[in-house]
Amino acid sequence: MPGLLNEAELAALAEARDRGLRSIEGLPPFGFGAPADADRIAQWDIDIGPDGEGLPAGRGSVERGEALYRNQCVQCHGSRGEGADYEALAGRTPGDRFEFADHRSHPITVGSYWPYATTLYDYIHRAMPQAAPGTLPPDDVYALTAFVLHLNGILEPGDQLDRESLPRIVMPARDRFVRDDRRGGPEVR
Amino acid sequence: MQGRFPSEVGTRSAFETPERLVSRPDYSSSSRTPLHYLQGIVTPADLHFERHHAGVPNIDPERWELLIHGFVERPMTFRLADLKRFPAESRLRFLECSGNGGTAYQNRGRRGDMSPQDMDGLTSTSEWTGVPLKLLFREVGARPEATWFLAEGMDAAVMTRSIPMEKAWDDAIIAYAQNGEPLRPEQGYPARLFLPGWEGNSSVKWIRRLELSDRPFMTREETSKYTDPLPGGKARMFSFGMDAKSLLTFPTWPARLDGPGWWEIRGIAWTGRGRITRVEISTDGGRSWEDAELQEPVLPKCHVRFRKLWNWDGRRATLMSRATDETGYVQPTREELHAARGSYTRYHFNQIRPWRVEPDGQVFFAG
């Protein structure tokens, strides 16, 4: 997974931390702010990690997801996730080729581009549907995630998702992402 | 005749009507700064560009709180009054959307009658004031194992990005003021993350929560959106830094030079990697280059104003600017960038922008 730090990066981070703390070491501890209570944290801590951290109990099937999708998602995303007022959700490239830098015609979708299925759960729950974001219960979010993955040929009819199975899905584009290697200097990257 | 009395709030002259250019009036839209209208480096707050992912929320500052939790010794919340009580820091810094200039980069859609605002209006400079994030992270006892933190906004999309902790220990701030007054709602009122020199999307507005962790969170914005496809079947992830860029603000479309003679070529340059050290101007389509004058102050991670006098002989001419930064990076041509990134990469379009002056004085984009 891009973003896990190697030894050199960890050493650089430790150095940056020391430097940062040294730059404020003349300042007293201020003690402003208040301890956060557990309820507030639980209410706001809605992110789902690529390892599945944060996923709630519950489950949803492709079929139930399809019913929810017909009601709440079709208008913006099209009947098969082809996109309408808003972006396309579904579509793969031939052979799962990843040539988006060279071909305008390759559609950027969940199936062709998204590296982690957990991101779908996180985003559907946090931001969808547009008129009432954050209101879908876990069973609905699992079901919609399952249906969108089905539209992309990643899940079969009858498949279900829960907190165990969702993080195990390997997306077609998972290994396509690399860390930024631009550092300034004369070379154009 | 006597003039107007003093007033509580000033307004522009009735003869001046600058406007942001709104791309598409919906919740996930943008508006662009009129770069060709502005002088100097500071963008008036009401002309600062906008880019949102779910509209501008209306947040009561009395009810607003920032939560910091995760890999910390003491999870805490901070009210706006708490933030303002910490030692403050003010810095003039640019902010640019990493999608800025996409139309000028692509093979289709480029037109001669595009203004700098049309093309590159998603960049602005303000004086940002706030509290250094390292102070807050020291208060909560950020653990040494924390390598990333999640920044989460309070808009309807609850926008999220994962940010390397290294930036927090360096120059990240939680900003609550812009050009001397509280942030505008469009810029994140009452408070936002501000990451100097990094792509605009990572400076999460309407900030409500920071969660420290030992890995990135792989949110929608940093996976499916703000990643850069590269030739060879890969895409660059976490491409935060903004490389050196410059552009002309005059003469550019729709300006018309009303005759040969002395004209001042003007523009702005910036880099996310420190200071601009040089801007060169070509008036012959890139065959020869001469240094422009950099107007003080030349600040790191900030727009820099440059100027160059030009005695136009009345013949067709192609004008260009080329920036160099303190790392030795030189702003590339469009061809160089296409070779490195492919023709349809999605972000970070800092190539040289050429302008053609016709004998009748009309100026067209020629990239």
What does this structure look like?
The complex is a heterodimer of chains A (189) and B (367). Chain A is mainly α and 189 residues long. Chain A has a domain at 49-176: Cytochrome c-like domain (Cytochrome Bc1 Complex, Chain D, domain 2, Orthogonal Bundle), CATH 1.10.760. Helix content of chain A is 35%, strand content 6%. Chain A is globular and about 60 Å long. By secondary structure, chain B is mainly β. In chain B, strands 5-4-13-8-9 form a 5-stranded mixed beta sheet. Chain B contains 7 helices and 24 strands. The longest helix of chain B is centred in the middle third of the chain and has 8 residues, at 133-140. Chains A and B meet through helix 1, strand 1, helix 2, helix 6 and strand 4 of A and strand 4, strand 5, helix 4, strand 8 and strand 9 of B. Strand 1 (34-35) of chain A pairs antiparallel with strand 5 (76-79) of chain B.
The biggest sheet of chain A, with number of strands, parallel, antiparallel or mixed sense and barrel status, is: 2 strands, antiparallel
Percent of residues in β-strands of chain B: 25-35%
Helix content of chain A: 25-40%
Biggest beta-sheet profile of chain B:
5 strands, mixed
> Could you give me the name of the CATH homologous superfamily of the largest domain in chain B?
Oxidoreductase, molybdopterin-binding domain
Summed up, the helix count of chain B is: 7
The top-level CATH class of the domain at 49-176 in chain A is: Mainly Alpha
Tertiary shape of chain A: globular
The end-to-end distance of chain B, rounded to whole angstroms, is 51 Å
Query: What average pLDDT do the residues of chain B reach?
Result: 97
Measured between the Cα atoms of the first and last residue of chain A, the distance is: 22 Å
Per the principal axes of the C-alpha atoms, what is the gross shape of chain B? globular
Task: Show unreliable segments of chain B.
Answer: none
CATH topology of the largest domain in chain B: Sulfite Oxidase, Chain A, domain 2
Q: Please name the fourth-level CATH homologous superfamily of the domain at 49-176 in chain A.
A: Cytochrome c-like domain
